[in-house]
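Students often ask why we bother encoding 3D structure as a string. The short answer is that it lets us treat folding as translation between two languages. Here is a chain of 110 residues written in the first language.
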Amino acid sequence: EITPVTGVQTCALPILAIAVLLLSITGQSWAGDAAAGKAKSAQCAACHGVAGISPMGIYPNLAGQKEQYLVKQINNFRSGVRKDPSMQAMVSALTDDDVANLAAYYAGIK
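And here it is in the second language, the structure alphabet:
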């Protein structure tokens, strides 16, 4: 036998799950300014190429990568989760807006 409280709790679970999902998606803003990212990308060009296509095989292409992926990876270098002395030096002075802008720029290159 389901009591009214249990019935409410059971109904509330899917709604709560949807709310948490929506908050997790909308709670993070990746909507950067691609034009500002292009201006900031000059420091990236030596290794990752002027248009995000690396001229050297040891550096990844950034052009066309997913925006969220780029934000995550740049922030991982900034925080030290990913370790590479060259990358850490390049990203250490970036602001959150710089990261979002760079990600928007590179994600927009097709």
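Translate back mentally: Residues 23-28 have pLDDT under 50 and may be disordered. Keep this in mind for the problem set.
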